[in-house]
Amino acid sequence: MSGGWNTIESDAGVFTYLVEELGVKDVQFEEMISLDADMLKQQAPIYGVIFLFKYPTNEPRSNEPRDGSFDHAAAENLFFANQVIQNACATQAILGVLLNRKDILIGGPLEEFKEFTQAFPAELRGEALSNSELIRTVHNSFSRSSPFIDENTRVATEEDDVYHFIAYTSINNTLYEIDGLQPAPISHGACTDDEFADKIIPVLQNRISRYPAHEIRFNLLAMVRDLRLRAQEFGDSEALTAEERKRQEWEYENELRRHNFVGFAHQLLKEVIRKKLKDGTYEDWIKDAQDKSKKRIDERMKGKGGDAMDIEY
């Protein structure tokens, strides 16, 4: 295997263009800002959801999941791959939905990968996924560029917050949780596509309820049919325009993610400092910046009752 896997953001635009780069047709992601079944139904048809959460690294291992039950037979009959490499969980969760849905046009490359790994056990499927040049290259193309940290050289410690992506989808009228860190898919009971929105919300709420009340770092993305198609079918030009504008914004943001601007910012700052020194205004410029910073901090502390721990820098 050559090359590593970088972390990518839980972002609707990132995930939408990622699946398109893999050859998938007519699929997009929508961020869900609340756990509301009616809001989720508005995005129908829903192929599944991708859930990001803080992984409980100190939780003891168990022979059974805390919710649902392992379906070891499904691990052989569905596409289920163990996660064998760090940072691949986002794409692996996405594939856990894509490769198990018959109503998605996944395209030639993923069809070939699915057929190639069909007879593999879960661990070998994970190895095949991590060694896929196409999947790894597309995944890494959506990682943020950074000149400071090599994701492959830093080992996480117990003090680090570790986040993990998993998928939920209805397969063969059963609600499955697809998590590559588990030994098998987790069944949460009978669930048709029409029932998915109503049945997934309690599962997620139950999972979140085990975290402290102050823990809010969760993210939920719904994998849905391209909303532009629905707008076209209903002749809703306003909705179509809004969706096209959203795509343009996503494309712009993804281009920014592929570049780091540290070198540019450094050079710009050097030029500004050179000009200030030449004009003799450098000291005044620094003092003015310090005064403005102090004023912002004072205003923020006043607004938060003087609690300096709440200040964000």
TrEMBL record:
The keyword Hydrolase applies. It holds the Pfam family Peptidase_C12. Its EC number is 3.4.19.12. Signal peptide: none annotated. GO terms for biological process: protein deubiquitination; ubiquitin-dependent protein catabolic process. The active site is at 89 (nucleophile), 164 (proton donor). Residues 4-225 form the UCH catalytic domain. Gene3D superfamilies: 1.20.58.860, Peptidase C12, ubiquitin carboxyl-terminal hydrolase (3.40.532.10). CDD domains: Peptidase_C12_UCH37_BAP1 (cd09617). GO terms for molecular function: cysteine-type deubiquitinase activity. InterPro entries: Papain-like_cys_pep_sf, Peptidase_C12_UCH, Peptidase_C12_UCH_sf, Ubiquitinyl_hydrolase_UCH37, UCH_C. It catalyses: Thiol-dependent hydrolysis of ester, thioester, amide, peptide and isopeptide bonds formed by the C-terminal Gly of ubiquitin (a 76-residue protein attached to proteins as an intracellular targeting signal). Residues 291-307 have a biased composition (Basic and acidic residues). Keywords: Hydrolase, Protease, Thiol protease, Ubl conjugation pathway. The keyword Protease applies. Coiled coil: none annotated. Residues 291-313 are annotated as: Disordered. One of its GO terms (cellular component) is cytoplasm. Belongs to the peptidase C12 family. This is Ubiquitin carboxyl-terminal hydrolase. It comes from Ascodesmis nigricans.
